[in-house]
Amino acid sequence: MLASADQMTVCFAHVAYQMQARFALRECGIASFEVRDRAGLDARIAEADVLVVSGLWHNGLAQLGGKLRFIQSIGAGTDQFDRAALSAKGIRLASAAGVNARAVSEHAMSLILALARRLPEARDNQAKKVWRGMIGDLTQREDELTDKTLVIVGLGRIGGRLAQLARAFDMRVIGVRRDPAGGRGAADEVHALSALPALLPAADFVALTCPLTPETTNLIDAAALARMQRSAYLVNCARGRVVDEPALVAALQAGAIAGAAIDVTWEEPLPAESPLWTAPGAFITPHTAGETRRYEDNVLDILMENLSRQWRGELALLNQVV
Ligand code: GLV
Fold first, then answer.
1. Domain boundaries, position 95
2. Could you report the per-residue pLDDT of 238-257, keeping only the tens digit for each?
3. CATH number for the domain including 241?
4. Does any domain span residue 85?
5. Which atom of ligand 1 is nearest to the CA of 264?
6. pLDDT of 10-47, one tens digit each?
7. Are 78 and 149 in a shared domain?
8. Ligand 1 atom, smallest distance to 75 CA
9. Taking CA atoms, which of 26, 38, 68, 76 is between 20 and 30 Å from 58?
10. Which of 287, 296, 309, 312 does the annotation list as catalytic?
């Protein structure tokens, strides 16, 4: 049972977000503090009844957090949490699914447009003061999206909105989801994950917007990449581990696909020595797909709702994971 508002303490743990400042504006009379790094979190976790965290989490914290009862994830993804360990400790967990659905879907659409319009090359040329002339080689020329096929892997809130955006550009949208009975939304078709290999050869773009689960780990491996067209692009706004990264680098180096826009990598930050930085056709954004100026308040809305539910003794949480 969660302590009452005047008896509990919330810890906000994030490297950059202004969670506590935005929380203070709500004047809800709940004690809180903020930590900015792992050492700070380890040192003060024992003071917290509620922890609001994403990337600073590590599973050892479940043992250190003496009175910790509830974790509100700042991220939509919760793959870093050991659910069984939390449950054994009586610690509940809710995700922030939905808070960045607009941002990530807009980022994925931006990446698709950037690849089709060859914006990364234009920016590279600008840095070299090169005004590229018109080109006859159709494989190198800018293109339009009408009638191009987009396969979206993961048709949740993010993938579902990406489908809507892509349809506005007259793309043909094929959704792939774990449970196709969940509906196709704006997509033209929806299939089970197992249908992906058969769908890949038709894709002009493959966008990953799925959670990282045992089923999606290494989903885009060498075999999957080999099924894609040489003219096709991969867009990853999910998790790095959904893609076999060395296989992607090899595919880009061999020209087996035309390019890849990658927001997430196996190791983040991407190490300077990673060959992905310089792989031909790679366009990298630093896990910024979900960033939005509304982020803090979007998470706090979910946090407050989940605190209220627990004070009312309700069992079901918003975005409940554990
Ligand atoms: C970002 O990657 C998130 O999980 O929200």
1. 5-99+293-311
2. 999 999 999 999 999 999 99
3. 3.40.50.720
4. yes
5. 2
6. 999 999 999 999 999 999 999 999 999 999 999 999 99
7. no
8. 5
9. 26
10. 287
Q: Is 167 a catalytic residue?
A: no
Distance 194 CA to ligand 1 centre (A): 25
Same domain, 38 and 116: no
Residues 118, 157, 239, 245: which is the catalytic one?
239
CA distance 121 to 283: 9
Kindly state whether residues 144 and 75 are assigned to the same domain.
Answer: no
Residue 97 tokens, joined? 């699914």
